[in-house]
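Predict the holo structure. Ligand: nitromethyldethia coenzyme A.
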Amino acid sequence: MDALKEKFVEKAVPMAAEVKALIKEHGDKKLGEYTVAQVYQGMKGIVGLVTETSKLDAEEGIRFRGYTIPELRKQLPKAVGGTEPLPEGIFYLMLVGEMPTQEDVTNVSNNWARRSIVPKHIFDILDKLPSSTHPMTMFSIGIMAMQTESVFAAAYRKGMSKKEYWDYAYEDSMNLIARLPRVAAYIYRKKYKNNEHIEPDPKLDWASNLAHMMGYEDFNVKRLMRMYMTIHADHEGGNVSAHTTHLVGSALSDPYLAFASGMNGLAGPLHGLANQEVIIWIMHMREELGGGLPTKQQIEEFIKKTLSEGKVVPGYGHAVLRKTDPRFIAQQEFYKNYIKAEGKSNDLCEIVQMIYEVAPNILAGTGKIKNPWPNVDAHSGALLMHYGITEFDFYTVLFGVSRSLGVLASLIWDRALGHPLERPGSMTTDGIKKKIGAVTA
Ligand code: NMX
Ligand code: MLT
């Protein structure tokens, strides 16, 4: 048993017993009530999931096992000479609930490197897809193609006990996380770099290996990739990608099937695809204005025009958050500390900042947008563009590689805690009207 798995067992066995006892003793206590509007409007605010890895606060933002993003950026172990956390550390923290040491992180890195070989048939399948295929579709297909490797599915077929579910879920999740950077980089090089591929370097950490296989050796890109992979890793359980992974996994679909489903949700423009949409939206604005840096007034006009056309302003708003996303702030700081402080500037990052100065007022002024503040996607593309990763259709794949850390850590916990099939009830509109005694015209 590897060291991380041993540590997980140490935590999971007592926790599973505690949850069982909690349900037995307090199972009939109420957590809240819900309204007709909540049922119609995406179940916002209804607590219906248990997620151990992170918790979102509407005002403060995300905490991973109790740690805020600024705390994590300070406290998580870093690469030699590095200033941003290694994502291996956030995975360790989310999985076992303890801040990892440098040695723990090195062990996870080595563990993933050992598991990272991607079978050839995945590349063959990706090669067969039309070149016009969106990178997120390719990513999802690549994950599905890897399902041939599922030890969970193989063990289930042979007949495994419920007590073993978590163990096979752990093995699949670790293999999958280890292989995703190679699949993502393959898609990138196939689509944008003449199908010329770069072999992984097993000496590199997970995030910098991804940058390396994509073709970026610059220290700054590796630093950005480490931060990117850390801050996108999880956002409690109700977001579309996490919830979908959990839901599909609850049918005992193996981690490959469950995670691919989550990625199909991430590929929606109201969720992870918003990072590409932000860049497209800014490019349209610049095109209309004839290039260069727009003025704040021009940006205001463009936002108003977008709203008047019945479209959303990408990168703004959130289903839970009611303040500026701390992941946006982390990226602003990255720009300030590592790009501007070196005397460099980037037009796109400047525009992102100008939008931030004018958009919230306009969005709040509509009276209906509950959160006028920027989310994580408002900034990420501009930083990638700065370092020459200009292929914005690919950005959501990077989000997806990172998101594997949170949703798969959660999936292992789901199996360890014996979470059952998820199957909420539903009602018809007639049924709702009868239940509340509503009289309609
Ligand atoms: N621009 C224009 N309209 C908006 C925006 C926005 N940025 N955000 C919300 N609205 C509208 C929304 O479409 C809805 O309109 P209607 O009543 O006509 O259907 C109304 O305001 C109320 O929506 P909210 O309750 O504030 O937001 P909701 O929880 O439904 O949706 C988002 C949350 C994130 C889907 C929404 O804010 C949005 O579409 N934002 C832009 C897309 C985006 O940036 N998504 C990324 C989210 C983060 N992520 O990575 O997943
Ligand atoms: C996320 O990171 O998943 C997004 O901010 C969306 C959400 O939390 O609903």
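The pocket of nitromethyldethia coenzyme A (ligand 1) is lined by residues 270-272, 274, 307, 312-319, 368-371, 375-377 (CB under 6 Å). The radius of gyration is 22 Å.
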